[in-house]
Write a structure and sequence with these properties.
Blueprint (H helix, E strand, L loop, with lengths): L4 E5 L2 H12 L5 E5 L3 E5 L6 E5 L9 E5 L3 H13 L3 E8 L8 E6 L5 E6 L1
Parallel strand pairs: 1-4, 5-8
Antiparallel strand pairs: 2-3, 3-4, 6-7, 7-8
Helix pairs in contact: 1-2
Length: 119
């Protein structure tokens, strides 16, 4: 359904560093960047965009990123914590979502809840 999504961030460089670290385990890279935005995703097709915002950002959004294995989810979670994210749900099964759902949740520097999931 979605081609891409964008979120506003207070510190573009700090958020770009955070997302570079947490998206690498999922196979995504930093793509286009300028002084106001940075895109991440497959090398030629960024699908997550960070936009610099000088005014306070509102309550955080929820972003779920698809992983291909439980190991990727675990690596994502570890990388996020090392990059300054806060734990919001350790890697593990979430059978209340579906029998095969395996996910981890972290809070990014701007208060967004970021999830890596094997649905």
């Amino acid at each position: 359904m979605f081609d891409h999504i964008g979120i506003k961030v207070r510190d573009l460089q700090a958020s770009a560093a955070f997302y570079s670290a947490v998206l690498a385990p999922l196979g995504h890279v930093r793509g286009y960047a300028d002084e106001t935005s940075v895109g991440f995703g497959p090398a030629a097709a960024p699908s997550l965009w960070l936009y610099a915002c000088e005014v306070p950002v509102g309550p955080g959004s929820h972003i779920a990123l698809r992983a291909t294995s439980a190991a990727q989810v675990e690596h994502f979670h570890r990388a996020a914590l090392l990059a300054g994210g806060r734990d919001n749900g350790a890697p593990g099964p979430r059978p209340h979502y579906s029998p095969t759902y395996f996910a981890a949740f972290v809070i990014d520097p701007d208060g967004n809840n970021v999830e890596a999931v094997v649905p």
